[in-house]
Amino acid sequence: MTIRSILVANRGEIAVRIIKAAKVLGIRTVQVHSAADADMLAVKLADEAIDIGSPAPKKSYLNIEAVVNAAKAAGVDAVHPGYGFLSENADFADAVEAAGLIFIGPKGDAIRLLGDKVAARAVAAKAGVPTVPGSAGRLATIEEARAVAAKTGFPIMIKAAAGGGGRGIRIAADLADLERHFPQASAEALAAFGDGGLYLEKVITKARHVEVQILGDGTNFVHCFERECSLQRRRQKVWEEAPSFLLPAEVRAKLCESAVALAREVAYRGAGTVEYLYDETTREFYFIEVNTRIQVEHPVTEMITGIDLVSEMIRVAGGAPLSISQADVEAFGHAIECRINAEDPAKAFMPAPGTISRLVVPEGEGIRFDTMLYEGYTIPPFYDSLVGKLIVWAETREACLERLRQALSGLVIEGIPTTIPLHLALASDASVARGAFDTRFLERWLETEFAAKTGATAEVA
């Protein structure tokens, strides 16, 4: 069926992004919001808004019954979950479809399968995608974990079978670490995801985090090239680029082809991301996980390919075939995204909600700012601190970094501390310019380079 109206089951900048894409497609939008978000930009931009509960996420954005009831009351055709919250909740996808509505994303069964990291590893192996050496399945006991570690060796990573976002992860340098961290990781995973299941993976030293954007309509599947996501703090991405600038052409081809093979294996529908670790020394890559939703960093892919990923998600969910074939997907130039958070880098990245007294957004060729902000808006203290994403494109990475420095200098957000100074320092750093970084670079850099220049504290208070 053709989608004529959408309920946006999210908040912040991604809700704004979805509403803008829907407007271009001529689709009516309904924005749900908590009591704390009544004044957010997405509410102002949507055709209709519905209050679904108190500020606590469990009573609003994570409340499946409240969201589905709002969708039915609004008479929409479909629900877009954005990222985070219920976006990778298979029960939510099932509930939306059980209500006679369209879930803009994969089917619940696909989310359930790929959301379980152990099951996803099995799917990847079946599709011929290399996986990191580790446990073949979930580990029920520390005895099983010891046996796996004896085969793979240390260091080894303890990971949650469900969920993501860096939670439920510990690195064990030796057997004593393993025995200490295993129950801790299980407890954290249980608290965060309702599932304390764990598995083990060998730690790939000096790994790069590379991911491939995929699109599918259940029958046809394409990749939209890869993104470099190695600049991370506490396993949370801070800065992303497309393409991965140090990836050899032959490796890029194999990497992207493997992502499409995995999508084909599960008859994937919608937008998704297949994540990998890449060993620059051996030129080998290993599957990590699949994110069955739109990613925070999707704009860098849009900037180098010209493909509107959110619009394509909506079209496919409405029953249309992919509007592009693999031959249509080409990459031009280089793009970088900086996540702008309401945090104070000089005070251990403490979240800093508050009122925006002044906002100046840089403009010009190759500059894009996806945001939830406007002057006078008060950021509530209940949610993630991401307030915007500055994305810059240029013909080369060198030119992109120069344009990024100019854009960051022109981005003014007054009234709250932000991570703009962090990104300005990164954009001017010689190691970043050379691409000489891995997934652990940023935390080392924060303790040395950034701390020396600003007096900032790297660790969260």
Automatic annotation (TrEMBL):
Residues 2-447 form the Biotin carboxylation domain. InterPro entries: ACC_Biotin_Carboxylase, ATP-grasp, BC-like_N, Biotin_carboxylation_dom, Biotin_COase_C, CPAse_ATP-bd, PreATP-grasp_dom_sf, Rudment_hybrid_motif. It catalyses: N(6)-biotinyl-L-lysyl-[protein] + hydrogencarbonate + ATP = N(6)-carboxybiotinyl-L-lysyl-[protein] + ADP + phosphate + H(+). It comes from the Bacteria. GO terms for molecular function: ATP binding; biotin carboxylase activity; metal ion binding. It is an enzyme of class 6 (ligase). Keywords: ATP-binding, Biotin, Ligase, Nucleotide-binding, Plasmid. Residues 121-318 form the ATP-grasp domain. Its EC number is 6.3.4.14. This protein is a component of the acetyl coenzyme A carboxylase complex; first, biotin carboxylase catalyzes the carboxylation of the carrier protein and then the transcarboxylase transfers the carboxyl group to form malonyl-CoA. This is biotin carboxylase. It comes from Shinella sumterensis. The lineage of its organism: Bacteria, Pseudomonadati, Pseudomonadota, Alphaproteobacteria, Hyphomicrobiales.
